[in-house]
């Protein structure tokens, strides 16, 4: 069953006053980031997006999340065009985005609070989700008192506490050390196997992309479109050892080959990319 | 952003910085307080002794500098007779009313200015102009317009505090992490909830820091106003005693003011800590 449908989504941004870019001899004060992205995602599917830095993967997530409007084209969830944040979409960010003045428990409660869930019920739900992520005993800690891995666990618990149909994750493990990253990938898969929500996960790591996904979507350099979709036929549940398997190696080679040209293009485009990144 | 830098940070902050660097041998808060007192007390005692001895020994004129014991005796007399409480009460009341009026004006206004850039651009010039006009220079204006009664004193305390609060509210609102706003929006936060649950709490530390500065200037301004035009209050007590050459009374008034200032600072620092306790143990106030 189709859950997310992105069709012909284009997005361009206005540059700061006085700045211009020249692409193929045409000078403009607007910069194109997404150039006709088409993508359909089934319900319960785990999709990872890889692409060169600054290729607009996060912008695509923002469009699906209803946080930014596409310049043209539409994103639909269950056939309904996304124009504002959907009640059953949750978003997880690289920098955790926890409210520093709220405890771990209160952070998880927040998502339920703004939805009007009664206090006692949301407290119970938030506790359950913290426990699910192994955070029993840390309910009353503030984010400043938690490690990066724990903070991201809280953020994921917060996202899942609302029982989302769509979970958007923007490089959620990129700021963590390698071991923590491995652990969180496995934890995420373990929980996802149980709830089977639809996940769109942006990453820079090819290994992470293959390990997690049903399908890896390779994006072109900016302005981005879908270059190739690689279906990952690895058995589930997967453990970390699978990364040493031959099949995994083959996927790694395949995704890297697809990505290599785009990374090269993006590097030539670096000066441009850095002006737009701000 | 440090339009208003607090030059009055308590000494304790330096200690907590040091404590952060050497967590293994961290002294407890209690032993730290004890060491602060034992190390700091000798200088204070020496000052008190000098104050006591110098006029008695005739090194300085006892008419202008009565010995400390004489000042304390007068102070005690005024406490017992209830005279001092009356003066303190009226001064604090004036400062508190002016300060509270400043809070209810500055905080909403600061939110508008911090949140809507058009509104800020429209009002910035006026605010900067008013901010740089001394509240003391305006006292005659307040008296002309509001009369010599309570209103003009409340006006000067209001004016003294309002800009600290306003500017710190603007800074606080502007410094809200855009990622938190984005995260809140992604969770379907309404505009009102965004204001109440995200922008306001993240502006609190800055507002509280502004309030701390505002409370002090409110109090000091009311003292100055009472010296110039009042029949009551600590400022009046000090000024009037000076005119009557009752210097022991005058110093008793000054000491009272010092004690109030110390207590107030202690309360405000404690309040600030409470408001920012989530920042983690090693950190102190904003900016």
UniProtKB/TrEMBL annotation, chain A:
Every ABC transporter domain range: 15-246
InterPro entries, alphabetized: AAA+_ATPase (IPR003593), ABC_transporter-like_ATP-bd (IPR003439), ABC_transporter-like_CS (IPR017871), ABC_transporter_ATP-bind (IPR050166), P-loop_NTPase (IPR027417)
Similarity annotation: Belongs to the ABC transporter superfamily.
Protein name as catalogued: NitT/TauT family transport system ATP-binding protein
This protein's UniProt keywords: ATP-binding, Nucleotide-binding, Transport
Segments passing through the bilayer: none
Entry-linked Gene3D superfamilies: P-loop containing nucleotide triphosphate hydrolases
Entry superkingdom: Bacteria
CDD domains recorded: ABC_NrtD_SsuB_transporters
MF-aspect GO terms: ATP binding; ATP hydrolysis activity
Automatic annotation (TrEMBL), chain B:
Gene Ontology CC annotation, any one: plasma membrane
Membrane topology summary: Multi-pass membrane protein
Cell compartment(s), UniProt: Cell membrane
Domain ABC transmembrane type-1: 88-268
GO biological process: alkanesulfonate transmembrane transport
Sorted UniProt keywords: Cell membrane, Membrane, Transmembrane, Transmembrane helix, Transport
Main location: membrane
Gene3D superfamilies the record matches: MetI-like (1.10.3720.10)
Transmembrane annotation, as ranges: 29-51, 57-80, 92-113, 133-149, 156-174, 218-238, 250-269
Superkingdom assignment: Bacteria
InterPro entries recorded: MetI-like, MetI-like_sf
Family (UniProt): Belongs to the binding-protein-dependent transport system permease family.
PANTHER family the record matches: ABC TRANSPORTER PERMEASE PROTEIN MJ0413-RELATED (PTHR30151:SF0), ALKANE SULFONATE ABC TRANSPORTER-RELATED, MEMBRANE SUBUNIT (PTHR30151)
Function: Probably part of an ABC transporter complex. Probably responsible for the translocation of the substrate across the membrane.
Protein name per Swiss-Prot or TrEMBL: NitT/TauT family transport system permease protein
Organism: Shinella granuli
């Amino acid at each position: 069953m189709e859950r997310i449908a992105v069709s012909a989504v284009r997005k361009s941004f206005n540059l700061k006053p006085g700045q211009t870019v020249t692409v193929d001899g045409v000078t403009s004060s607007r910069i194109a980031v997404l150039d006709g992205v088409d993508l359909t995602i089934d319900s319960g599917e785990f999709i990872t997006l890889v692409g060169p830095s600054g290729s607009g993967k996060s912008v695509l997530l923002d469009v699906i999340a209803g946080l930014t409007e596409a310049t043209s084209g539409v994103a639909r969830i269950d056939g309904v065009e996304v124009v504002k944040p959907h009640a059953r979409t949750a978003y997880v960010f690289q920098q955790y985005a926890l409210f520093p003045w709220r405890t771990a428990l209160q952070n998880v409660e927040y998502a339920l609070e703004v939805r009007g869930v009664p206090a006692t019920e949301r407290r119970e739900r938030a506790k359950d989700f913290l426990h699910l992520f192994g955070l029993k005993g840390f309910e009353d800690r503030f984010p400043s008192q938690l490690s990066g891995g724990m903070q991201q666990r809280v953020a994921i618990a917060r996202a899942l506490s609302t029982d989302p149909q769509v979970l958007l994750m923007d490089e959620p493990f990129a700021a963590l050390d390698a071991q923590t990253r491995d652990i969180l990938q496995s934890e995420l898969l373990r929980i996802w196997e149980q709830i089977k929500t639809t996940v769109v996960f942006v990453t820079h790591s090819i290994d992470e992309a293959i390990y997690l996904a049903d399908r890896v979507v390779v994006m072109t350099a900016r302005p981005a479109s879908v270059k190739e979709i690689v279906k990952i036929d690895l058995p589930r549940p997967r453990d970390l050892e699978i990364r040493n398997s031959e099949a995994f190696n083959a996927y790694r080679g395949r995704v890297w080959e697809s990505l290599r040209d785009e990374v090269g293009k993006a590097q030539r485009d670096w000066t441009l990319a850095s002006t737009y990144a701000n | 952003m440090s339009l208003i830098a607090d030059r009055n940070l308590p000494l304790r902050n330096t200690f907590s910085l040091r404590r952060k660097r050497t967590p293994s041998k961290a002294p407890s808060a209690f032993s730290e307080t004890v060491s602060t007192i034992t190390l700091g007390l000798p200088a204070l005692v020496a000052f008190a002794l000098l104050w006591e001895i110098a006029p008695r020994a005739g090194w300085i004129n006892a008419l202008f500098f009565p010995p400390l014991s004489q000042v304390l005796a007068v102070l005690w007399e005024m406490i017992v007779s209830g005279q001092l409480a009356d003066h303190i009460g009226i001064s604090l009341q004036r400062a508190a009313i002016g300060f509270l009026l400043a809070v209810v004006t500055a905080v909403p206004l600061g939110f508008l200015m911090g949140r809507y850039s058009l509104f800020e651009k429209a009002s910035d010039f006026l605010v900067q102009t008013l901010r740089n006009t001394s509240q003391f220079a305006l006292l005659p204006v307040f008296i002309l317009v509001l009369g010599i009664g309570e209103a003009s004193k409340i006006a000067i305390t209001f004016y003294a505090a309002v800009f600290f609060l306003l500017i710190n509210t603007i800074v606080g609102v502007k410094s809200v992490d855009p990622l938190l706003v984005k995260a809140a929006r992604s969770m379907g936060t309404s505009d009102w909830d965004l204001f109440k649950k995200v922008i306001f709490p993240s502006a609190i530390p800055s507002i509280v820091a502004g309030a701390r500065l505002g409370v002090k200037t409110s109090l000091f301004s009311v003292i100055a106003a009472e010296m110039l035009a009042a029949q009551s209050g600590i400022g009046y007590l000090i000024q009037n005693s000076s005119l009557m050459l009752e210097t022991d009374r005058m110093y008793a008034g000054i000491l009272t003011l010092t004690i109030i200032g110390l207590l107030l600072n202690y309360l405000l620092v404690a309040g600030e800590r409470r408001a920012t306790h989530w920042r983690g143990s090693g950190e102190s106030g904003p900016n």
